[in-house]
Amino acid sequence: MKRPPRHPPARIESTADLRSFQRMMASVIVRPLTADDGLQPRWVDGRPMDEVASEFVKPNDRLTSFERLELYNRMYWSRLFDAIRDDCPGLLAALGEDAFSRLAREYLARCPSRSFTLRNLCSRLERFILEKPGLTAPRTRLAAEIARFEWAQTVAFDGESRPVVAESYFARTAPSRLRLGLQPYLTLLRLRYPIDTYMIAVKRRDALRSEASNTPGAAAVHRAFRRVGPPRPRRTHVAVHRHNNRLFYKRIDPAAFRILEALRAGSTLSRAIAAAGPGVKPAKVKGWFTSWMALGWFCARGNKRRRGAS
Amino acid sequence: MPANRFNGNTDYGIGIGLRVPHYSHILSKKPVVDWFEIISENFMVDGGRPLELLDRILEQYRVVQHGVSMYFGSADKPDRTHLRKLRALVKRTGTPWLSDHLCWGSVDGTYTHDLLPMPYTFAAARRTAEKIRQIRDFIEVPVCVENVSSYAEFHASEMTEWEFLTEVVELADCGILLDVNNIYVSSKNHGFNPYDYVDNVPHHRVGQMHIAGHTKFEKYILDTHDHPVLDPVWKLYAHATRLCGVTATLLEWDDKIPSFGEVHNEALKANEFIGGARKAAV
After folding, report:
1. Rounded to two decimals, what is the model's pTM?
2. CB-based contact B113 A80, cutoff 8 Å
């Protein structure tokens, strides 16, 4: 968002005036809250915020101009904070409430939503975590991998699906010329931590909590749950995908993962298979492809956006 | 005016919002419901479960699209990606009309995801109407604009909210989604008579109505959609239907959502309040 005007327009007589007014109000609304969840008492230029608010917002007999703007400021942060919590239960579990809140506040302040849908709110979170390691230290690498994994889940949930290529598609073209696309909803993750099993543990815990919350004495049950501890490092290769519109995580053999990565990068089928390495037997490769075909992972390569393996 | 050109000349009766906690009940029990309103943005995705569920609903029910982020009142141009996805969804659902809010919420491409009140000026009305026309021409279905609940008023305003609404819909030649709960909430927050609002909008343009619950705080009322409709809102609704006719009506219940049956029964209470309008129509 561009810099707000020093003063809101006194009259709105053109689209330019309207834009200037909207920049002013939006700049107030998206400003971080104070420690007491209130509107900051000073504007960006140091003037008292109540003076700035009274320049464009009318007071009424119960609320000052400042208080009326503060309602919108609070609602903005509440709405976006809830959205990021909903999308990132794994990150929340790994970092704990305080560190997660700090991260979310900083992320939303520096990377406000640029999309009409909150679905895309966390699309830049992994990069932000790596750019601001102090917010998640000493678990920055883990936090970044969880953020990547949770974004992959969003993509797998409602990402684009293209027509699956038929087996005859393979027969028509020589492997040295055949290039296959991978479904856009499929994300390949090369991880330092077993985030897949970690996420399953977090979801199981949250499901139990949710169930317990509807029963008498839920608090006692709640206390009995074990905290989901952060995972220990272990090289893991995972595909986050969907099948029959349900979300799945599939562990992938490292050699098989190299094939999929190569295909996604645009290699021909021959080169992709070669990427698996010399020790991989043809029967094994055939088995992998049979499984991937059954899951509907292959589509024709298109010019539309490609998702790189990560 | 149950059917008019702003709601695609339909007569849809009483509907409820399609919400996730009710999916399983709806798909397994197939309850009789006049129609469902969907939040367009929840289904403007490229694939997966949301669209599968929507298609299953569409096989059995009438669906109307309601948007929350087109921001007719934002000075920015409409987002092309948003428009393309919206048009694709309109083709999928066959919605006879489409609604979104008379508000703004984004500037310079940054989104607040809120329904922010407009400054009620003639220039803002012209810009808003221009955008509504552009969007309607692109998506090719009638558009109804919904009055929002608000918590702030501006010095720059040159008219009342209902005058602004009227100015916009006349310039855009579009319909109104009259949210009587929002009128009531704003009337308490800003100290106007809600009946003045309802009396002074162009009734022939009302293509749909919304009813909902709100929450009273010490110094203001919040439009929370988290419990049943309150009596003053039902009375205002009865008054509005006397003026506008029995119009497609939808109950919004978006938080602390109870069972499907409870929500649907609450919506059907609307029948108790539209008797006057029915008699007038006979």
Report:
1. 0.93
2. yes
